[in-house]
Amino acid sequence: MDAIIILQAGVATGTVLLFATIGEIFAERSGVLNLGVEGMMLIGAMTAFSTTIATGNPWVGVLAAMFAAGLISQIHAFITITLQADQVVSGLALTFLGTGISLVLGEGLSKAGTVSLLPNFSIPLLSQIPFLGPILFTKQSVMVYIGYLLVPLTWYYINRTRPGLNLRSVGEYPSAADSLGISVFRLRYFYVFVGGMLAGLAGATISLAVAPGWFSELTTAGQGWIAVGLVIFAQWDPVRAMFGSYAFGALRRLILDIQGPTLLLGFDNPFYYNPYWGFFLQMLPYAFTVIVLVIGSREAMRKRLGAPAALGNPYVRGERGK
Amino acid sequence: MTQTTPSTPEAPLAVEMRGIVKRFPGVLANDHVDFELRAGEIHALLGENGAGKSTLMNVLAGLYRQEAGIIKVKGNPVEFYSPRDAIKSGIGMVHQHFMLVPSQTVTENVLLGLDDPRFFMRLPEYDAKVAAVGERFGLKVDPRAKIWQLSVGEQQRVELLKMLYRGANVLIMDEPTAVLAPQEIDGLFDILRSMISQGKSVIFISHKLHEVTAIADRVSVLRRGVATASGVPSKGATRQELARLMVGRDVIFALDKKPGNPGNLVLDVQDVYAENDKGLPALRGLSLNVRAGEIVGVAGVAGNGQSELSQVITGLRKCKQGEVKLAGDLVSNRNTLFGIQHGMAYVPEDRNHVGSAPNLSVTDNVIMKKYRQPPISRAGFLDMGAATKLAKELKDAYDIIVPSVTTPVRLLSGGNLQRVILAREISGLPSFMVAVQPTRGLDVGAIEGVHRLLLAQREAGAAVLLISEELEELLSLSDRVYVIYEGKIMGEVKVGGVEPDESLIEMIGLMMTGTPLDQIHKEGVGANG
Amino acid sequence: MAESTSVQKKRAGFKIRVEPRLEEPAAWYPLAVSLGAIVVALILGGILISFAGGDPLKSYQHIAKASFGDTGVLSDTIVKATPILLAALACSVAFRMKLWNIGAEGQFIMGAFGASAVVLAPLLAEDTPRWLFLTVMVLAAMAAGAIWGFIPGYLKAKFNVNEIISTLMMNYIAIAWINFWIFGVWSEGGFQMSPKFPNNAWLPRLLEYAKEYPALRGLTTHAGLLLGIVAAIILWIIVYRSRWGYEIRLIGDNPQAAKYAGINITSNVIYVMMLSGALAGLGGMSEVSGVVHRLQTAPIAAGYGFTGIIVAWLAKLNPLVIIVVSVLFGALILAGREIQPSGVPKMIQGIILVSLIASDFLLRYRIRIVRADAEE
Fold first, then answer.
1. Which of A20, A194, B268, C88 has the smallest count of CB within 10 Å of its CB?
2. What is the pLDDT of residues B1-16, one digit of tens each?
3. Which of residues 170-229 of B touch A (CB under 8 A)?
4. Is residue B240 part of a domain?
5. How far apart are CA A281 and CA A258, in angstroms?
6. What pLDDT shows up at residue B466?
7. What pLDDT, on the 0 to 100 scale, is given for residue C14?
8. Residues B105, B146: contact at Cβ < 8 Å?
9. Residue B529's pLDDT band (boundaries 50, 70, 90)?
10. Domain total of chain A
11. What is the pLDDT of residue C375?
12. Which of B356, B382, B407 lies at the smallest CB-CB distance from C257?
């Protein structure tokens, strides 16, 4: 029950959510809701693990995971962008499909033993900073550090570059973008692919770093769905997504740790003496997601802003203007 | 047909359009239209809704492609396949619905789709450039402001800025004043004059006569896809003359209309104020009334509060002040159900999105307001036998052409769908009916059918409020016509039983463009005609 | 007005033109498209199975034999189909209103919990007559499911909270909730399951009548099937023949038109979510009282709620068609337990759903191949 350990682990496990959430932010910013995050993450986790077993190199596993998840995201892209089908149903289907495929292709992987994992290391100097050093820069996975870089880069890309401007326009007002020569279709395909790749990266982060191994559906245990919820809480902003992800990661660690000691705040720890009380703790991340959704939705209602305006709507050319 | 311009010291032509033809399903929107724009002028394009002015300008802006005719820019023939092509030739259009991304800043909107800057936006640097262009043309707007924070007038300036930044020389403005408050209109006119003084040319689409005479150098008028005037200097033209060119004196349908016999007061709208979806005032102290056995028309140009009026009456929109009474019962600010249960029928202007459920069958659509009562409803259940019987009866009685009553209505033509809606509304034996644009988009035969149904309602003793932008329709059907302008009634004219004459049409035209009736009487009608 | 919205692709002298359908396709057409989509899905699934080292033909043969081979396995298939049927009915009524209730799984689990609570709390004594026991269990299960549907429904109506995510989160909470009870309060001797229910709390099974009809020996089909079929018929009547169902269909197709017809949308959101939850809860009761006979996580939280989504979609939300499709999916799941690799049924479900959604395009659009030189 050491706050620093909980926060340190929170950042580590939260990195999984962070990648998935940022991926979904890209897709949704372009106007495509992709509920298949859970399925894409499983594909990523499975691919990363099995490729690493085959090649012995976890980095090849990471790249393969990103490519595989990106590839499967294109099914969703095709169905919703070209065939203009309902994004909700298609995303659900993608989750089923991703889960099923990863179970079939991941058959037997759970007994595959250990593989070489992604490295953990401390950053010199930075790890010496009091309080923050041990939490953020000591013996963290390389993925955690990649996460640190990804957040500001994503923010800058979305808000301060021309491709980011195009991305936002396509998600907010596709006919305006189209009238100025920006290809709505191409950009939406591309950012669904980016979203898939990041979900794959999230999956690889689980199976090669945070919780190494392949445990079929339990590998992700609904984190893909939490990520979809976090996007709403984050109001489609990567910085808010980072805080949300780390908070969720810390919560998961807290739940584990709270059941350890015999005394809690000076009282007999009920979770220690009645371990099944721990199931109430297990509900917390999910209950918290619902609460976070209520907060996010109310804020969005109040500000009349939030979701990209064209989110969920297929773009049909020719409906522009009058 | 075409009046020629008295010769003036002629500037070179900026744009020349010859013999433009554009067809939409069932409509000839532009019928061999000629149009000339001189460099450095403000040229007004005048016409009623549906006259084809927006279509003509969408062709010039590269949004539509003409089926026949040629376009020349500065004397050179051009082919436009997209708005980008048009902008490259220096032609930019500011649409009625702004093409601006609300969550982005002014500069971001201006730079959207350009090649410079290539990757890093370097906004501070470009904020300055955008501000400089704005400065030059008197377009005061903060480049760092987000679009949603701006007023409609400011957003319009951003649209102008977007085009000027791209180097547009010809600016097409589609009904630019429709969305502006009076004080903003003066500001816009100043901007337009400043642009002209720097060599730009402006096409100003409008149907408001006083604005046209105030700002334009020359005027062209379209009526039903045909140019009725080309390049008339606005100085020489009187408002009455222009109103006649715009509205025309078409033969009014000879309908078999019996003299009216108005009965009790049915609908009473008293001093109603309401806001539109954007929270701006749409109705400002509007009052009108309808009696049993009469059709009362509401004339006006689109967007002057007609939709909001019908929604307040039917309970779909709250009113902030004032009240609506139906046969003495208060109906405003209650739910829709109250009106339905008290004999109110409603033919909404949006057949597809409000008036019908596209994937449900004809039967399901005709019972929309009857499913709560017997014989359709029995103890909470639907008697589908009764519903089908009703649907078949209505199908025969209203000549709805459809393979079967189980066909989903999305497959019906506009005229048939409108008959389904009218059948549903009329079969409820309403004491009062609001019909909004009931003939929009229908062919001539279907229009006549709808007109006969409305007249039958009048003869059956119902009160009918007919909200329409078609003046002929209003004049041939109504007993009285109110004219609405910016959420207020400009005046009321009696038309029942009288062959509408030229002066009456002129009077309505003047009210539609913002002159109250008492002022018209003061000035004297037709004095200059 | 829009100009022609057709998409054109040039291919060696021919153009593929995609145009919106303007008339109703023949009655056989949607069925043919759905069947075609399933065939395509099975072929794609076969490719993936062989990629994973299996033999697709054998797998499919096995599925057919292991689920319809004789009365015994047919009965097992029906046992598997029953929870799917009720879960699919739950999904169908919510989807009809375009409410994406992905929480049938959790509502199903809560239904199982509600029914179990009657036995285990205990609300009724062990020697309560069977009819009373079962009736109270059904009511408790439906109430528990309805509560689990009410929460996201209320949040949707009140705060516009995305029901997809809230219902999904409620699934995980439901699992933790029953785990709490069976690991702790109701644990049988420290095992992760509750004690077995008394026989009075079991739904009648066919094998109980084997004395009179020997052919029924060993058949485990239980009265839950009856509950499912009755629920399907009632739901069909509600949706297509009641005032409420009419309102549901109208809101689902066009909320604007519903408002125009004077229908209150927010209260309907809550009611429909509760109905949906109650139906899924009934499924949980049927499973716990007809098959498992005790509260235990793995067999209850076995994904029936998710399969129900696919079944509802495949049946085009028609309750009566759902009966048939559930049996097919029951077969798939039953046979799947013996197939290697074990994820095959789930994957095939996913592929079927994907191809079904994609095939919808063919119902909305017409694809014509015309010569490139043949201009309109």
1. B268
2. 344 343 345 678 999 9
3. none
4. yes
5. 9
6. 95
7. 67
8. yes
9. very low
10. 1
11. 38
12. B356
The predicted-structure confidence for A281-295, as pLDDT tens digits, reads as follows 889 889 988 998 888
Dihedral sign for Cα atoms in the order B217, B220, B221, B224 = negative
Instruction: List Cβ neighbours of B486 (8 Å cut-off, separation of 6 or more).
Output: B284, B304, B305, B514
Residue B492, pLDDT above cutoff 70: yes
Instruction: Mention every residue, 6+ apart, whose C-beta is less than 8 A from residue C307.
Output: C84, C87, C88, C329, C333, C349
Asked if the structure places residue A146 within a domain, the reply is yes
**How many Cβ atoms from other residues are within 10 Å of residue A123's Cβ?**
16
Residues of A in contact with C100 (CB under 8 A): 88, 92
Query: Looking at B319-371, which runs of residues are DSSP E strands?
Result: 321-326, 329-330, 344-347
pLDDT at B3: 41
Q: What is the ipTM of this complex?
A: 0.83
Residue B486: CATH number of its domain: 3.40.50.300
Domain of B470, in residue numbers: 265-343+429-523
Same domain, B143 and B285: no
The pLDDT value recorded for residue B373 is 85
Label residue B157 exposed, middle or buried (CB < 10 Å: 0-12, 13-18, 19+).
buried
Query: Are B132 and B201 within one domain?
Result: yes
Q: What is the DSSP letter of A217?
A: G
A318 in any annotated domain: no
Average pLDDT, chain B: 85
Contact A322 B96 (CB under 8 A): yes
Q: Go through the domains of chain C in sequence order and give each one's CATH number.
A: 71-338 (1.10.3470)
- Does residue B22 lie within any of the structural domains? yes
My answer on whether B238 and B130 are in the same domain is yes
Kind and range of the H or E element at A302?
helix A278-303
Residue A148 lies in a domain: yes
On whether the CB atoms of residues B525 and B501 are closer than 8 A, the answer is: no
Q: Are residues B462 and B314 in the same domain?
A: yes
Same domain, B282 and B164: no
pLDDT at A306: 64
Res. A133: pLDDT tops 60: yes
Q: Which pLDDT score, from 0 to 100, does residue C88 have?
A: 96
Question: What is the domain range of residue A54?
Answer: 3-303
B96: contact with A, CB 8 A cutoff: yes
Of A161, A179, A322, the CB nearest to B119: A161
Q: Which of B243, B214, B254, B182 is nearest to B508 (CA)?
A: B243
Average pLDDT, chain C: 86
Cis ω for the linkage preceding B438 (within 30 of 0): no
The reply to whether residue C183 touches residue A319, judged by beta carbons under 8 angstroms, is no
Residue C245 CB contacts under 8 Å (≥ 6 apart), including other chains: B382, C237, C238, C239
Distinct helix (H) and strand (E) counts, chain A: 13, 4
Structural contact between residues A40 and A200, judged by C-beta atoms closer than 8 angstroms: yes
Residue A37 lies in a domain: yes
* Cβ neighbours of residue C137 closer than 8 Å, sequence gap 6 or more: C114, C115, C118, C119, C201, C285, C289
Considering the domain boundaries, does residue B181 fall inside one? yes
The answer to whether residue B28 neighbours chain C at the CB level (below 8 Å) is no
Contacts of C355 in chain A (CB under 8 A): none
A24-82 pLDDT, tens digit each: 999 999 999 999 999 999 999 999 999 999 999 999 999 999 999 999 999 999 999 99
